[in-house]
C-alpha cells in the first residue's frame, strides 16, 4: 500500500493496563505500511495544541521496546481530559491542529480513548470534511469502564476485570482467616456503569464462593432490602463478601459516597472532608445496624494500572484494534472507531470492525438489566459468559531485579 | 530417623502470601521422616483449645495440592490472635493442650507465626519441661512486618516487599499521566516498624525514580521539615511520590492517623468515625499548606495476601524453615525457632539455624537507624542491599479460567 506521509497517534482519558498495547499496534502497523514517521501527541490533544509532539520512530526502534511497551501501564505518551469546542463556537484550536497536521505531513490521526476521545475524533473528522482536508481520523477504543457503545467490549476492561477477580479471590482467602463472623465490602471503580463491579463474579469457581452480593450503579440501592439480605446471609455463613461499585446510588439518585460527605465532616485541618466512601458507607451501615464486624477495602487506582496482572486476551485485542485502525485509515476510512465484534463466546472468537464514531461519542453503555438478578444484587450467568473470555491467559511481566520492567518516553 | 508418633502444626497471627509454603514444608518434611499423621490446628491454639484439629494427610496427599498450597494466600488452617496466660496464673489451657497432645500421640508441635506465636512456643516448651513432657516445640517464623528478632528476615516479608515495590512502580506510572503537578502519598502497612515501607525503595531502578520520600515509624515526623522538603521537591519535578508507613508518629509519639480521628468526626450514622488515615492526613496537609493536587492511596490488605505476586525466594525460604523445623524436632530440639541466617548478600546465600525461642518472643526488631538518611525521610543503600535479594524471582500462579487457583481445607 502506497502511503507516503506520516501518521499521528495520541492517548486520552484515564490510563489502562493495555492502552500502550494499542499504541504498539498503531506503531507497528504504520511502520509495516511504510509510513515514514509515526508521531505521538504528548498529553493528548491538549498537549498537541501546545505543540507537544514527538517522533516515535527513534524511541521504539527495537522489538524489545515494543514488548516493554505492551507491559507498561498508564499512557506512554501522557494523557489529558480535554474536550474540543464546537468549531462554530471556537475555530481556533482546529486551525492550530490542522496547521500542525500540514506542517508534519500527517495523513492520518489515531486517538486511543473512551467516549470523550471519540467526540474528539468526530469533531476533527467533521471539521476536516468541512474544509476539504484529506487527513483521516480513526478512534481506537480504550477504557476500563467498558461503557463504550458500538463495540462488544473495550480494551482495558479485560485486564481490570482480571485484576478485580484475582485480588477479590485473595481478599476472600484473607477474610476467612479468623474464626469470627465478618462482612467485607470491596469498593470497585465505575461511577456510572457496573461492568467492573460485575467482574467480581469472575472470582467465583470451584475454590471460591465469590461475592455474595454485587451492587451496581444500574440498580437503585434500597437500604432495608440490602440489610435484610446481609442479615440473612450472616446467618448462613461466617464471612459475607460484598462487591460494591463506587457509583451505587439510592432511589433518589444520590451516590452513597455523597451521603458520607454530606454529613458535614471536616478534615483534620478544618476543611470539608472529601471521603471517597461507598464501601465505608456500607461497612458503617452494616456495623451500626446489624452489629457485625465489617471491613471496607478500596481496590483503588491499581484497577487501571496493574499491568503485572494484565489479561493476554486484552493485550492482544488492544494491539489488534490499534493495528486495524491504521489499516482502515490506509484504506481511506475516516470518522470511524475500530470496534471489536464478538463472533462467538464458546469458543471465544472476535473480529475488528469499523463503526461510525459519531454514534459512539458521548454515549454510555450500561450493563443490560437482564444481566442482573431480579433483586439487583447479583449478576447472572450471562454476565459471566460475557466477561469470562476477556480475562483469559497472561502476559508475564519481564521481571528485572525482582520488579517488572517498564518503558518511558525520553 | 525413627519417629513413631505424630506431629501437630498450627498457623497464627496475620496471614501472609507464603505462610502456607511453611505449612507445606512442615508437612512434607514430617511425611519424609515417616511421621504417621500430621495434624493441623484449626484457627491456631485458640481453635485447638476447643478441640479443633484436622488430620492433614488425607487433604494433602497429592503433589498438586502441595503446589496449590504454596500458591494460596492467607492461612490454610485458619489463624488466631491468642496469647496463653502464664501457667502459674492459669494452668487450665496447658492441661487441655497437653491432654490433647497425649490423646493424639503428638511428638512435636510446630507453630508458624510472629512474636506472639513465639511466646506461645516459649510458654508451651517451658510448661512441658516443668511437667517432664517429651513433646518438642519449634517455632516457624512468619510475618510480613519483618520485625522478629533472631532471624535475618522473616518469611512473608519478601513477598509483601515485592508486592509493594511492583504496585508502587505501577502507581508511579499512573501518577504522571496528566500534564499537571501532583503529590501522591502511598500508605504502607507496619504500625511499629518501617521494614515494609522501606521496601518502597525497591521500586527504584533505571525505569523508575522511585519514591521521593520514605517515612518510617522509626523517625519522628516533623511537619515543617516535611513540608519544606515537599515544597522543594515540587519545584524540581512534576509528580512527587511519598511512601508513608501507617505507623508514622510525630515527636510526641502520636500516630498521624490518630490526629485525623481525634478531630471529632462522625460517620454518616452519627458515630465517631474510624478513619485509617496516615496517607489521607499527609495528603490533606500538603494540599492545605502547599496548595497542590494530592492523592492518597492505601495499599491495604493486599500487602499480606497478594500471592499472585509472591517472591519465589520468599516461598522457597518459607518452605525451608518449615522443613528445617521438623528436622530439628526429630533431632530432639525443643524451645527453638528455626531462623534464617544470611551468609552473604552478593551472591545471596542463607542457611537455617536454631535460636532460643525465649529470646525472640515478644520482642520487636526496628529498622537500624543507620539505614535511614540523616533527615529520616529516605532509606540508604544498605537497606536496599538487604531487601533486594528477598524479592527475587517469581512462582507463577496456576491460572485456571483466568484467575489463580487456590486450595482450601475441607
Structure commentary:
Two copies of one chain form a homodimer. With 410 residues, chain A is an alpha/beta fold. Chain A folds into two domains: 6-156 and 307-363 and 393-404, Rossmann fold, CATH 3.40.50.450; 164-293, Rossmann fold, CATH 3.40.50. Helix content of chain A is 35%, strand content 18%. The first copy, chain A, has helices spanning 19-32, 44-49, 63-70, 92-103, 115-131, 157-175, 195-198, 223-236, 256-261, 278-290, 302-305, 312-330, 381-387; strands at 6-11, 38-41, 53-55, 106-113, 136-141, 182-188, 213-215, 239-245, 294-298, 336-345, 348-356, 399-400, 403-404. In chain A, strands 3-2-1-4-5-10-11 form a seven-stranded mixed sheet, with helices on both faces. In chain A, α1 runs parallel beside α12. The longest helix of chain A is centred in the middle third of the chain and has 19 residues, at 157-175. Chain A is elongated, with a radius of gyration of 23 Å. The model of chain A has no long low-confidence stretch (mean pLDDT 94). Chains A and B meet through α6, α10, β9, α11 and β12 of A and α6, α10, β9, α11 and β12 of B.
Amino acid at each position: 500500500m502506497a502511503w507516503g506521509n506520516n501518521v499521528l497517534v495520541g492517548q486520552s482519558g484515564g490510563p489502562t493496563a493495555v492502552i500502550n498495547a494499542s499504541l504498539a499496534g498503531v506503531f507497528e502497523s504504520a511502520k509495516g505500511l511504510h509510513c515514514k514517521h509515526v508521531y505521538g501527541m504528548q498529553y493528548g490533544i491538549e498537549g498537541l495544541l501546545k505543540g507537544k509532539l514527538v517522533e516515535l520512530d527513534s524511541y521504539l526502534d527495537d522489538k524489545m521496546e515494543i514488548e516493554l511497551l505492551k507491559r507498561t501501564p498508564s499512557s506512554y505518551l501522557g494523557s489529558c481530559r480535554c474536550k474540543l469546542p464546537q468549531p462554530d463556537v471556537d475555530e481556533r484550536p482546529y486551525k492550530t491542529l490542522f496547521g500542525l497536521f500540514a506542517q508534519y505531513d500527517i495523513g492520518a490521526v489515531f486517538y486511543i480513548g473512551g467516549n470523550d476521545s471519540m467526540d474528539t475524533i468526530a469533531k476533527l473528522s467533521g471539521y476536516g470534511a468541512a474544509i476539504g482536508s484529506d487527513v483521516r481520523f480513526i478512534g481506537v477504543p480504550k477504557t476500563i469502564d467498558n461503557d463504550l457503545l458500538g463495540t462488544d467490549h473495550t480494551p482495558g476492561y479485560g485486564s481490570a476485570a482480571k485484576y478485580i477477580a484475582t485480588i477479590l479471590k485473595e481478599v476472600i482467602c484473607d477474610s476467612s482467616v479468623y474464626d469470627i463472623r465478618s462482612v467485607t465490602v470491596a469498593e470497585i471503580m465505575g461511577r456510572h456503569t457496573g461492568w467492573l463491579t460485575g467482574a467480581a463474579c469472575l472470582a467465583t469457581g470451584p475454590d471460591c464462593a465469590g461475592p455474595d452480593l454485587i451492587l451496581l450503579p444500574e440498580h437503585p440501592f434500597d437500604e432495608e432490602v440490602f440489610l435484610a439480605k446481609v442479615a440473612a446471609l450472616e446467618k448462613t455463613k461466617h464471612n459475607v463478601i460484598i462487591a460494591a461499585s463506587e457509583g451505587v446510588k439510592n432511589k433518589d439518585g444520590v451516590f452513597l459516597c455523597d451521603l458520607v460527605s454530606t454529613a458535614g465532616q471536616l478534615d483534620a485541618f478544618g476543611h470539608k472532608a472529601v471521603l471517597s466512601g461507598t464501601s465505608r458507607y456500607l461497612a458503617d451501615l452494616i456495623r451500626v445496624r446489624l452489629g457485625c464486624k465489617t471491613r471496607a477495602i478500596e481496590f483503588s487506582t491499581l484497577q487501571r494500572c496493574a499491568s503485572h496482572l494484565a489479561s493476554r486476551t486484552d493485550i492482544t485485542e488492544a494491539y489488534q484494534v490499534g493495528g486495524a485502525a491504521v489499516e482502515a485509515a490506509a484504506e481511506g476510512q475516516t470518522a470511524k472507531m475500530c470496534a471489536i465484534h464478538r463472533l462467538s463466546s464458546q469458543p471465544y472468537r472476535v473480529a475488528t470492525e469499523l463503526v461510525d464514531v459519531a454514534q459512539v461519542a458521548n454515549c454510555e453503555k450500561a450493563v443490560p438489566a437482564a444481566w442482573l438478578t431480579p433483586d439487583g444484587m447479583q449478576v447472572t450467568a450471562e454476565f459471566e459468559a460475557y466477561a469470562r473470555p476477556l480475562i483469559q491467559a497472561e502476559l508475564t511481566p519481564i521481571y528485572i531485579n525482582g520488579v517488572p520492567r517498564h518503558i518511558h518516553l525520553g
